[in-house]
Each structure stands twice: as structure tokens, then as C-alpha cells.
Inverse folding.
């Protein structure tokens, strides 16, 4: 056996908490027994670094690194391991074990299963990601490495550059590396200090063949020529594919065009980097595919694209065929006919293609275009499609490419519209507001419908920032103000709002107000729809209100312009007008004027099947207080966005759904939507949308026994909200933190937090949100002995309740009056509040009132009545998963001498809702990282809750936990069958 002993040096690992925990468990276990673990990952993800970290962390005995030479039989290997270990524990590290020859791999696999006979030896292997399922290693436990998340990649970049990277350069580096730490480091080494600081332009391409070969070239060593041609064909095909895989028949046919005499191109003899599934080929790791394409000889690469163009053209696949044809060019950079053809097909709504593919086609058309204005227009169209594909980073890059030459106002306006929408999702909303106002101004003459969409999105940005004056000015009749604040002659000035109470008229209810796109959103606020999303059906729901200045879109005068127009949004003027009129009326406190136009928008959901129109309908329904209509429209919008592969609209649809469920008091459902929404928002680069989902998750967690989860979501939401000026998300997050304090019996802390949000002053919360927190503040202030503070906010809340858009507000107002009333009036006020809750529905708010009433009755020495109210409160809290509040009710019942009956099934009844969710996921075989991704929390939070679960249930392993969950749920099903008389 050959090897070398480790010299301990510090190793810094960014992220990888789940993987490090698994390695740490292996090392800790060596105190008593042997163990083994496989670390799997693609090139550059840090397998070697993790093994080095393990070697540095292990101090209990020697560490040996095995090389790749022959190692004999399993018995010989075990004898060597015994000799290494001696009397104490030892760690053996084998990096790139998949590179061992087959007999040695087999011996290593057999030795791993017999380590118990070798003393206390830990065997830590690393293999290529797909090789972990090889027969030699498939029976061993595996921990997998994924690309770094954005925060972890940010931290790594800061460490290696001392934080001196220009923000624009940072975005380019992180986008190019795609979460691969080794590639990120290679790119940083490639750049000079001046380039890193943005003082000199970056090389093109940034991710060059040398950097890719440095990281992943080893995976391609020794590939024969026939196999290389197939690899190159698959890599080239992926550039014009909507998915990471390609049809096997297309790849094989094109490869045979490249090498007609080859007899080795068949499914039964695939090259090592490729995998076949469902008749489609893909690379095991995308970085290897990028490396194959970048390092191929230019003439061979062009030949591969030419072969693919021939095969796809024969199969009728117009757009990818044209793309491959363009990449096969050997002539001048400018090809007007090919560029025109690509742009025309990219904008043809009869061609089935994803937004990503259309963005690629428009980009390539721009690269082949010599004319400056036409090139700018095509880069702008590419940016529109990239934004719809959920790639705001790519949209910014394309908009930068669109600069540099003169262009008509319409093209400049569309570029500003895309820029503003990009910032609205993933940047400072103040910047978004200015860009969108400029877009509306530039588009007003040539594209009035686009101008109207830009104006509504500008109002959206002002709403998100909490700037009421800017929101009103933007929604005023006539064209919106210029970014400098001026108006053209004859434009109407914005009227003043009706009064302080009316400023919050759009707040949708106790469950939480709509997100930034739920106010004045033309679904253009989520980005212009694609070719299949632009047409909106005729208006439904009765005659329109008096029209504003938004005119119908003009028809293009030539076919090429028609093809270009097909690829972007042209919002229906009726919908734009109705939304604008209704929003303006609500902000002015005129519900009578708002109900009709917003009702028209809601009604259109009955016939619309496009996500942007359905999102508008959901927003209007929330503004009118109709949570059921909002939920229906949001669910249809989600289905439509998924069906059309509109990645950018999915997290927005989930945001509407989450707020609708919060509005109805269904916190578990809201949490489910927000968890998925957070994952998709982060995946599609929408950090502002992610902050709103974080706020929803914090609000949902604040009613459960989860202070760690509340703190985590609040911290993450505030981090983005403060950087990007998201006043609404910040207010919601702070409210969630205060509500968690109140639920945990900390009224002083809650009153301090809520006072900053609701009391008059410059730091008051978002104009449409702060009133929603008033009932919590009144409760906290009364319990904290600060009754006088409530006088400053209750009149405004009374005006809000009278407004009628929030069905819970009237009951909450009666509860507030009961808390403040003298004993002779409080009884009747509590009863009145409960009666109003029966009309409005919603388990959580009704249970809160019953809890406060029960506490009041107990203090008045009326135990029988108190027991009834507290029992009702406990049942309501249990029903909606409000664990922390249910604990309060149980405590009150115990103080009365009552023994509250636990709910749920068997041994699991002592777990909080979050702990129960984690227990069930773990019982199904999910890793801590997988649970964290599913629940949109950190792995640290999962670790914390899992330790609590193990302690509460008295189990010591995941297997024991799985058995207990299975038995408890079977017992619960049996009990339910017994109750209902169901037969097995």
C-alpha cells in the first residue's frame, strides 16, 4: 500500500454544512467503532477540499492518503489498515477512488464493508458524482456536493479578492462560475487587479477554454476520437436546447455526419461523461459539457453545429436549426439574412420555443447584425426573453450590450422597461421606479400600451418602497410624470389622498397585504409576457368605466416588425385602465369608485388562461378583500405559468397564493406556497420576491413554536429589504418578529417592536401595512401597561375597519376595545368580537379573541365560562397549526385545573408543527440538506429541530425515527377508521 501522511494545515470551506456534519459524524464515531463515507461531486465542487478539511480536523490519530496504484486484495488492504491504526483510531482518505483500476476498486469496496475487523478505522472516499452508484461503491453511504449557493459563492469571492471586486464584475464572475468554486477561483486568477476593480473591460469570453480545462479537463483525458465527436455533438446541441439533455437520435445522427465511417457510435458504448435516460443524452455534469465545447478545435466545433443544423432542419425544428447554422459560420461576423431570419423566427408566436431559447436566438441575431439600431433592438428583445426565463443577471448583461449606439425612442423605452422590471425583482426599487418612469415617457408616443404597462410597474416600485406620494402621482390620470418629477403641459396633477386613514385602503387584511406586484401590477410588473402570453381576451364583466389616455396598440406596418412585436407584452388597454383607475381610487380611500373597475379585472379571470391576466385578477381580488377569488386566480396563474414555462412568473403566482391563504387565515397552506416560492425566486434570481416570501414564512412561523425559524426568515428578509428599499417586506418581517414575541409571552418586547411600526413618526411602517399590526400592538401595549399609546392608533384602525376591505378588521377592532374597556363593558365587547369573527371566518384570529376572553373570564373568577372559551381557543389553534398560541391556551386551562387533551397521533403529539414536518421528511429518507431545501430554511435550523425531535421522542437514529413516525401515523389512521366506521 502506498500513501503519505497528512501535515495539518488550515482549510477554509464555504458552506457545505450538511456535508461537513456528515464527515464530522464519521470522525467522532471513530472513538468507538470503524466507519466509512463516500463524498461524491462533479469536478471543481470541492471533493478534495472536503477531504483535506477532514484530515485537518482529525486529531485523534494518524491520517493516511492512499494513492491510485494497485492495492491487492481486500484482505491485504485490511491488514495494512490494521497496521496503520494500531491501538488507536486512524483516518484513511482516498481521493478520486473512481480512478483506481477495477480490481483495486473492488478490493476497496469490500474492505470498506469489513472495517469492523480492522480496529477503529475511518475510510473517507471521494468519487465523481455519477460514480457513487457504481457496484464497487453503491452499498456505501454517500454525501453529495452541489454547486455553491449565491451567499456562499459571494463569501468565497470576497475571501480570495479581499472584497475588492467591482459589483458588475462580481455579477459576471458569479454567473460564469455557476456555483463551481474551482471555476470561480480560476476566473479570478485569470483577471488582473484592474479588471477585477472594473477599471478595464473583461476579456471575452470571460469563461475561456483554459479556465474550463483547468477545472474539468481531467475528466476528458484519454477520450478516443469517435467518442469525442459524440461528446462534442451533445455539447453543441445543448447550446440550442431548452433542457440539459438532447434527443439521442439527433445526437447520433449528427455525430455520424461528422464521422461517417465510425462504427463505435452506438447506445451500448457511451463515452464515460455521458448518460442515457428516456432516449435522451446528457452529461453527468454540465461543466464537463461546457469544457468539451470550449476546448474543441474551432473547425471541428463549427462542423458539429453544421451537422446538427442539417439534422434539425430535416426534422422541422426551425429555430434550433437556424441557431446551429449561425454558429457554423466561417465568414464575416455580419450576416444580415441569417440575422433577420433568426429574429423573425424568435418573434414568431407560432413557433414552439422557451423564453431561454428565444433569448439565445435574439442574442445571436444581434451579434450577426451590423446596423446599430437594429442590433440594439435585438439585444433588447433578448433581454426581455431572458427576464421571462428567470435570468435577470443575463438580462442585465444583454441590456449593457444594447448600449453604445443611437436607437429610436421605442427601443430605448423597451430597454428601460426591461431594466426597471429587472431592478423591481432583484435590485433597488427606487432605481426601478426611475427606469420605469423613463420607459413610460419614451414609449408614450409610439407604444402607448407599453407605456401604460411601464407606468403601472413604476407605481408598483413606489408601492414596494412605501412612497405613497410617488405611487399616487404615477397612477394619476394622463401620462405619468417624467423621472425628474415634471409633467407635460396639460397633464393632470395628482390629487391629494382623502386622509391619513385612507392611505392604507389597499391593505388586504390581517393575513398580510399583497406583494409589490399585487398593487398596481400589470402583469407586466413581472416582466413582459412571451409570444404565447401577449394576447388578452376581450373585457368581461360589463361596460368599461370612462377611458383614460391609454390607447390600443398600433399594428406594425411590416412583417419584420410584426415578428419583433410578437415576442413582448402588449397589455390589453381595458385591463390596464381598470387596474389603474381602481388602484388610484383605493389609495384615495374611495372604495365606491374602486369596486367596479377592480371587479372587472377580477371577472376576467373566468375567461383568461394566460398568467399575466390571472395575476392581475388575483391582485384585484386581494385589494377587494375576496381571498377565495384571489386564491382561484392565483392557482390558475401558477398552472398557466408552469405550462408555458414562464419561469419568472412562477414565484409571483406563488406569492399571490401565499398572501391569499394568509388573508384567509390558512397559515400552513400559505407556508407551503411560500416555501416553494422562495426556492423558485432564488433559483430565478428574484431576491426582492424572495424577501416577500421570507416575510410570509416569518408570519406563518410566528404562530408556531419556532423562534429560530422566525428569526432566520426575518433576518434574511430584512437584509434584502434594507439594501433594496423594500419598505413593505421590512414592515411585514418586523411585524412577524413582534407577533412571535407576543405569542411567547413577551409583551414588552412586542410592544417595543410594534410601537416603531404603528406609532406616528418618521419611522412608521409601510403606509398600506402598518394598520394590520395595530391589533397586535394594542394587545401587547395593554399587557405591557402602555394603554395610553393605543390612543394614537385606534382611530385610524377604526377608519380602516369601516372601510370594509378587510373582513377581519371589525372583529379585531371590537377585541381591541374589549382589551381597553372597563369590566362592565368588556364582556359584551368580547362577545361582539366573537360574533363578528363568525361572520368573517378564520380560525386563528377567532381563537386569539377566545383566548383573551378566556383569560379575562379566569381573572374575573368565572372558571366554567373561562374553560369553555379557552377550550374553543385551543381547538382553533390546533386546527390552524398555531403551536405557540395553543401552548398559551393549555397553560390557562391548566391554571383552571383542567387537563387539556393533546391532539394529533400518539408519540408525535409533543412535536411542534415544524418539528413534525422535519420528522416526516427525515422518516421518508431525506437528508438534512434536502429537508432544508424543501422547507426553505437553513440546514442549521433543520439540525436544531432534529436534535429536539430525537430528544422529545427518545430515539437515537434516523431509522428509529422512521419506525416511530410510521407506527404513529398507522395508529392515527386506525383511530380515524374506528371513528368513521371505515373498513380496511
Amino acid at each position: 500500500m502506498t500513501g503519505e501522511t497528512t501535515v495539518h494545515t488550515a482549510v477554509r470551506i464555504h458552506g457545505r454544512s450538511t456535508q461537513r456534519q456528515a464527515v464530522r459524524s464519521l470522525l467522532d464515531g471513530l472513538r468507538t467503532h470503524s466507519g466509512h463515507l463516500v463524498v461524491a461531486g462533479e469536478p471543481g465542487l470541492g471533493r478534495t477540499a472536503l477531504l483535506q478539511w477532514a484530515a485537518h480536523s482529525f486529531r485523534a490519530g494518524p491520517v493516511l492518503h492512499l494513492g491510485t496504484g494497485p492495492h491487492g486484495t481486500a484482505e491485504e488492504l485490511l491488514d495494512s489498515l490494521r497496521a496503520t491504526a494500531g491501538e488507536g483510531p486512524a483516518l484513511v482518505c482516498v481521493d478520486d477512488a473512481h480512478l483506481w483500476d477495477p480490481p483495486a476498486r473492488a478490493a476497496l469496496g469490500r474492505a470498506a464493508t469489513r472495517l469492523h475487523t480492522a480496529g477503529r478505522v475511518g475510510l473517507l472516499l471521494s468519487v465523481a458524482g455519477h460514480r457513487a452508484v457504481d457496484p464497487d461503491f453503491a452499498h456505501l453511504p454517500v454525501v453529495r456536493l452541489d454547486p455553491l449557493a449565491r451567499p456562499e459563492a459571494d463569501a468565497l469571492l470576497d475571501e480570495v479578492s479581499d472584497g475588492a471586486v467591482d459589483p458588475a464584475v462580481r455579477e459576471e464572475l458569479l454567473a460564469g462560475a455557476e456555483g463551481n468554486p474551482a471555476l470561480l477561483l480560476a476566473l479570478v486568477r485569470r483577471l488582473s487587479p484592474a479588471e477585477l476593480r472594473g477599471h478595464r473591460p473583461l476579456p471575452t469570453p470571460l469563461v475561456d477554454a483554459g479556465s474550463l480545462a483547468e477545472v474539468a479537463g481531467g475528466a476528458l483525458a484519454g477520450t478516443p476520437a469517435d467518442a469525442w465527436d459524440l461528446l462534442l455533438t451533445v455539447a453543441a446541441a445543448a447550446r440550442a436546447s431548452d433542457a440539459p439533455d438532447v434527443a439521442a437520435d439527433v445526437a447520433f445522427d449528427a455525430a455520424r455526419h461528422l464521422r461517417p465511417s465510425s462504427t463505435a457510435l452506438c447506445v451500448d458504448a457511451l463515452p464515460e461523461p455521458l448518460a442515457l435516460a428516456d432516449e435522451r443524452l446528457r452529461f453527468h455534469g454540465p461543466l464537463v459539457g461546457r469544457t468539451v465545447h470550449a476546448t474543441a478545435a474551432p473547425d471541428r466545433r463549427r462542423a458539429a453545429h453544421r451537422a446538427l443544423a442539417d439534422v434539425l432542419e430535416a426534422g422541422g425544428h426551425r429555430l434550433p436549426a437556424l441557431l446551429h447554422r449561425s454558429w457554423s459560420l466561417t465568414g464575416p461576423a455580419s450576416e444580415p439574412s441569417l440575422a433577420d431570419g433568426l429574429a423573425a423566427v424568435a418573434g414568431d408566436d407560432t413557433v414552439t420555443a422557451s423564453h431561454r431559447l428565444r433569448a439565445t436566438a435574439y442574442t445571436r441575431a444581434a451579434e450577426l447584425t451590423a446596423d446599430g439600431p437594429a442590433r440594439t433592438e435585438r439585444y433588447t428583445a433578448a433581454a426581455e426573453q431572458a427576464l421571462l426565463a428567470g435570468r435577470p443577471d443575463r438580462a442585465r448583461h444583454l441590456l449593457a450590450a444594447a448600449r453604445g449606439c443611437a436607437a429610436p425612442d421605442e427601443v430605448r423605452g423597451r430597454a428601460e422597461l426591461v431594466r426597471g422590471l429587472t431592478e423591481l425583482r432583484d435590485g433597488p426599487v427606487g432605481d426601478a421606479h426611475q427606469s420605469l418612469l423613463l420607459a413610460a415617457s419614451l414609449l408614450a408616443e409610439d407604444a402607448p400600451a407599453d407605456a401604460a404597462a411601464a407606468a403601472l410597474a413604476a407605481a408598483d416600485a413606489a408601492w414596494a418602497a412605501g412612497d405613497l406620494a410617488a405611487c399616487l402621482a404615477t397612477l394619476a390620470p394622463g401620462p405619468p410624470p417624467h423621472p425628474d418629477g415634471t409633467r407635460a403641459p396639460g397633464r393632470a396633477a395628482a390629487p391629494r389622498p382623502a386622509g391619513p386613514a385612507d392611505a392604507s385602503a389597499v391593505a388586504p387584511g390581517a393575513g398580510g397585504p399583497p406583494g409589490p406586484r399585487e398593487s398596481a401590477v400589470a402583469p407586466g410588473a413581472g416582466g413582459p409576457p412571451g409570444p404565447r402570453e401577449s394576447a388578452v381576451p376581450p373585457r368581461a364583466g360589463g361596460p368599461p368605466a370612462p377611458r383614460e389616455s391609454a390607447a390600443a396598440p398600433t399594428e406594425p406596418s411590416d412583417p419584420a416588425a410584426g415578428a419583433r412585436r410578437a415576442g413582448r407584452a402588449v397589455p390589453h388597454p381595458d385591463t390596464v385602465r381598470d387596474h389603474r383607475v381602481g388602484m388610484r381610487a383605493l389609495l384615495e380611500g374611495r372604495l365606491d369608485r374602486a369596486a367596479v373597475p377592480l371587479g372587472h379585472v377580477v371577472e376576467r379571470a373566468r375567461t383568461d388562461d394566460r398568467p399575466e391576466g390571472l395575476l392581475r385578477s388575483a391582485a384585484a381580488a386581494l385589494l377587494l378583500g375576496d381571498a377565495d377569488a384571489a386564491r382561484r386566480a392565483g392557482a390558475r396563474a401558477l398552472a398557466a405559468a408552469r405550462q408555458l414555462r414562464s419561469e419568472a412568473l412562477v414565484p409571483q403566482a406563488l406569492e399571490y397564493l401565499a398572501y391569499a391563504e394568509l388573508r384567509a387565515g390558512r397559515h400552513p397552506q400559505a407556508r407551503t406556497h411560500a416555501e416553494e416560492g422562495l426556492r423558485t425566486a432564488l433559483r430565478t434570481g428574484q431576491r426582492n420576491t424572495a424577501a416577500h416570501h421570507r416575510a410570509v414564512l416569518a408570519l406563518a412561523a410566528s404562530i408556531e413554536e419556532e423562534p429560530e425559524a422566525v428569526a432566520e426568515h426575518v433576518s434574511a428578509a430584512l437584509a434584502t429589504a434594507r439594501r433594496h428599499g423594500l419598505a413593505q417586506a421590512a414592515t411585514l418581517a418586523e411585524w412577524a418578529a413582534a407577533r412571535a414575541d407576543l405569542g411567547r409571552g413577551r409583551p414588552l418586547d412586542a410592544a417595543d417592536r410594534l410601537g416603531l411600526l404603528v406609532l406616528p413618526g418618521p419611522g412608521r411602517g409601510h403606509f398600506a401595512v402598518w394598520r394590520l399590526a395595530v391589533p397586535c400592538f394594542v394587545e401587547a401595549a395593554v399587557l405591557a401597561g402602555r394603554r395610553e399609546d393605543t390612543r394614537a392608533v385606534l382611530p385610524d384602525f377604526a377608519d380602516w375597519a369601516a372601510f370594509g376591505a378587510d373582513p377581519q378588521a371589525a372583529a379585531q377592532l371590537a377585541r381591541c376595545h374589549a382589551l381597553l374597556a372597563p369590566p362592565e363593558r368588556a364582556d359584551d365587547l368580547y362577545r361582539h368580537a366573537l360574533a363578528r369573527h363568525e361572520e368573517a371566518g378564520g380560525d386563528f384570529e377567532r381563537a386569539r379573541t377566545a383566548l383573551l376572553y378566556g383569560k379575562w373570564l379566569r381573572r374575573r373568577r368565572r372558571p366554567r365560562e373561562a374553560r369553555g372559551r379557552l377550550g374553543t381557543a385551543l381547538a382553533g389553534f390546533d386546527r390552524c397549526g398555531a403551536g405557540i398560541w395553543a401552548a398559551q391556551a393549555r397553560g390557562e386551562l391548566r391554571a383552571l385545573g383542567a387537563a387539556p387533551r393533546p391532539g394529533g397521533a400518539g408519540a408525535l403529539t409533543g412535536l411542534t408543527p415544524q418539528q413534525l414536518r422535519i420528522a416526516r421528511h427525515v422518516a421518508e429518507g431525506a437528508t438534512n440538506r434536502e429537508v432544508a431545501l424543501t422547507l426553505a430554511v437553513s440546514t442549521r435550523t433543520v439540525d436544531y429541530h432534529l436534535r429536539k425531535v430525537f430528544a422529545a421522542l427518545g430515539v437515537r437514529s434516523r431509522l428509529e425515527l422512521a419506525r416511530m413516525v410510521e407506527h404513529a401515523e398507522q395508529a392515527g389512521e386506525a383511530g380515524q377508521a374506528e371513528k368513521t366506521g371505515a373498513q380496511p
